[in-house]
Amino acid sequence: MSDTDREYKLADTRARFAVAVREGRAVTDVAWTPGRVLLSNRRLVLAGNDGRQTVPLSRVDGLGGRHDANQTIARVSNYVSFELDERVLLVAAADHEAFERDVYRALLDGSTPLVRHPAVVGGVVSDADWERARLGIGEDGLSAALESGAFVRFDLDDVSGLEATERTVADRKRPVLEVAHTDDDGTSVETHLGGDARQMRFVEAWLRKGTARSEANVELSSRDREVLMALYSGVSPFEIPAFLGTEVDDVEETFTRLVDLEIVELVRTRQEVSLNARGRNIASEAMNEQ
């Protein structure tokens, strides 16, 4: 029996839930109901003082953004928003991040879209073919095991761009996601995923968390930008002081600030750093402004 043939539990935790939209209209007097939420790969079960309701995951059309109908809802910083036909259900679990990840696991683990990898390498279109792949949600990203034996990992921190489009794949029009990310060896690549509309909506929603991190606004000094552009151009971290004509201590202070801003990653304790996806985006934009 395969995983898709059996039902298994993914989460069982304390939570609060509320209905934010009913019959297509926002609920103005919405309030949180405390209780317990159980999640399997097939259904969501909410149990509170008023009883128990079960939502088959097949009815979930999307995972939306915030629905702050009133101050009671707005005061809650994190919740998962389930779009169900003309109803929107909010669930604020005790451990939001773990529950949210389990929701995506329930919706996407084991699904089999078509994948083209790498579709683009260093800005050059490749001759890779579309092939079937099996998706999996990890601790902080998405993986795709291809029929050819290749394994593609989309760490959210390494997703720098995401575009939703439509293309002819396997002789018919399908929604396609074009994902710009870093491969395991650090190469900037683009991978394309194609599948049914509902499946691609969930994949896009999960990967958008990565682009949101990458695109977050940060305040950078002119020295920060100089260091980023030097790294982006291939200058070794150890050569940057001489390259910029500045003191080693000043550059190391800049490295420390950029690490704190999650723009570069510390490779060694003596301030060797490398750009991550967010840093590459910012450096590329800075160079385009020159």
Order of helices and strands: EEEEEEHEEHEEEEEEEEHHHHEEH
Q: Any idea of the CATH topology of the largest domain?
A: PH-domain like
Radius of gyration: 22 Å
Instruction: Estimate the global geometry from the Cα principal axes.
Output: globular
Number of E strands: 18
User: Helix proportion of residues, in percent?
Assistant: 25-40%
Count of spatially separate domains: 3
Residue windows where pLDDT falls under 50 for at least 5 positions: none
SS class:
alpha+beta
Distance N to C terminus? 59 Å
- Count helical runs: 7
Mean pLDDT: 86
State the major sheet: 8 strands, antiparallel
Q: What is the top-level CATH class of the largest domain?
A: Mainly Beta
**What is the CATH-assigned architecture of the largest domain?**
Roll
Proportion of strand residues: 35-45%
Topology:
Blueprint: E1 9-22, E2 25-26, E3 33-40, E4 43-48, E5 51-56, E6 62-64, H1 71-74, E7 80-84, E8 87-93, H2 96-108, E9 114-121, E10 124-125, E11 130-137, E12 141-146, E13 151-155, E14 159-169, E15 172-182, E16 188-194, H3 197-215, H4 222-232, H5 240-244, H6 248-260, E17 264-268, E18 272-275, H7 277-288
Antiparallel strand pairs: 1-2, 1-3, 1-8, 3-4, 4-5, 6-7, 7-8, 9-10, 9-11, 9-16, 11-12, 12-13, 14-15, 15-16, 17-18
